[in-house]
Amino acid sequence: MAENRVIKVLLVDDHQVVRRGLRTFLEVQDDIEVVGEAADGAEGVERAEELRPDVVLMDVKMPGMDGIEALRRLRELANPARVLIVTSFTEQRTVIPALRAGAAGYVYKDVDPDALAGAIRSVHAGHVLLQPEVADALLSQEEAGGGGQGRGNALTDREREVLALIADGRSNREIARALVLSEKTVKTHVSNILMKLDLADRTQAALWAVRHGIGA
Length: 216
Known about the structure:
- The chain is an alpha/beta fold and 216 residues long.
- It has 10 helices and 5 strands; from the N terminus they run E-H-E-H-E-H-E-H-E-H-H-H-H-H-H.
- Helices cover 51% and strands 12% of the residues.
- It has a 5-stranded parallel beta sheet with strand order 2-1-3-4-5, with helices on both faces.
- Helix 3 (67-76) links the parallel strand 3 and strand 4.
- Helix 2 (41-51) packs parallel to helix 3, helix 7 (157-167) crosses helix 10 and helix 8 (172-179) crosses helix 9.
- It is globular.
C-alpha cells in the first residue's frame, strides 16, 4: 500500500555531529530513509530540489542562509517537501517565524528517537505539529492583526467542511476519505481556502479555523 512507502528525509544542519546523530536515530526505522545531508540553508535548498525528499529536517540557526530563509526559498520554488524544524531554541521569536515561513512543525534536538520518527511520519501524512503555547501565540498575533474574519463569508459550505478537517489535523487523503472526494478535488478546495482567506499554508488555515470556531 502507498501508506507503507519509505519516507525520504533530507537533513539540513550546520553541525556534522547533529546530522550524524539524526541519521543514527533514523537508520533503524524501516519506513524512513535519509537520502542526503546539507550543512546550511542554501545547500539545503539545492539538495531538496535535487533529491525531492518527502520531509526535510531543518535547523533554524545556520551560517549564511538560515533555516527560515531556506523555508521561504523552498516555498517560492513550490518544492513539495514538508519541512520539520529541528531546533535547540525554544523561544517563540525563533519558532513562530519558521512556522509562518511554511514549516509543518518543529521538534527539539534532544527529542526522543521514537518521537522524532513519529513526528516525521505525522508531517509526511499532512499533519501540523504545534505546541499549545506556540499555537496560542500565533492566534494572538492573528487577532492583533485583524485576522480577516470577514473573508470567511467567501467560503462555500464544502470549503468550510474541508477547513474544519484541516483544523482537526487531517491530511488531504484523510479529508478525501471523510468527504468521499478525490484527493485532487480536496487539493483544489485547500488552494481555494488559502486564496480566499489570504493565508500562506495549512498551518495558518488551521489556526484561522480554530480562532473562528470552525473545527477543532
